[in-house]
Amino acid sequence: MKELLKKYENKAPEIVFNWKDPETEAEGWTVINSLRGGAAGGGTRMREGLDMNEVLSLAKTMEVKFTVSGPPIGGAKSGINFNPNDPRKRGVLERWYRAVSPLLKSYYGTGGDLNVDEIHEVIPITEDAGVWHPQEGVFNGHFRPTEADKINRIGQLRLGVIKVLESDQYSPSVKNKYTVADMITGFGVAEAIKHYYDIFGGSVIGKKAIVQGFGNVGAAAAFYLAQMGAKIVGIIDREGGVINEAGFSYDEIKTFFLHKKGNTLIADADRMIPFAEMNERIWSLPTEIFAPCAASRLITKEQITTMMDTGLEVISSGANVPFADKEIFFGPIMEYTDERVSLIPDFISNCGMARVFAYFMERRVGMDDELIFNDTSNTIRNAILNIFKQNAAKTNISRTAFEIALKQLI
How much is the pTM? Predict the structure, then answer.
């Protein structure tokens, strides 16, 4: 596996597009690792301090993810080095998407990512730049539909991603009008845990769980885990967190979800524990399940070792590359963890949004909540089942998953 991984990591990307904004200090890159299947896909992120190497590593990560989620295309990513809180952000994005629009028309599909919103920024700004939909390049480069079929499927994709959930099985509040895009990634993180226990043995019911991060992914993962019967004992967020060693009730988790402000956990003052104290206490809480859903490259070896000592069984990653490794994929902390507990890799557990895109692009499909969410659930289950067929042990799950993926790419 390591030889395959080294070969894949060291292979130069096919296309690197570099842009310097004429009106601000912003600089952007689109990195297309390959045009496997005639196209490539990956979202657009913005943060201060971003560089081309970060974009390259994310493009390679997307290509591995597509081996699970489909469609069978290359990985890509766009990144802009700029402060997303700067009032000039909208203008930067407008000029960026105009510059990159020929790629988006031909063979590259994009979407939202860190600090760039799919619905309010990517879709309307790319439309103004003359692109029918941010995924138009994937349709043209990979699916090659007739013009009429492309119009129909782009319409289906557009409606599907922003579809308001109608079932309280999938939404913490139907009246609040949460969409597929709001919930699907966190749903996949929770489903990966459920399928892990179903396939490798055991049950999620009654298991204690810790969630790191309470944005869309972490909040949704906590909601679905509580719905399944897991006991959320701790949630750690950027500004603090909450602990209940007996486990928060399903209704309490729903309340946390409904009261969060943007991507921030909100709790009563007597419940909210400041971050410094939370960061000291949470890693030693007895827990079987860990869902890291915050930023990338945060989890240290010391933190994960402490969790192992208190009964950790399985990790389902909502964040890409959650461990504090410098390597693109399989660094020493990840390897150490994979050898000792069940580690479901991010490209399986957080593939929900990529799978939804594939689902709506591939053919005419049903638009009801159950069909959309079952499709993502089945995709994740099949990926975990394929791992189990090659490796029935509860360790080295990520190593096996990478072997399966890389054999498709090299």
Answer: 0.94
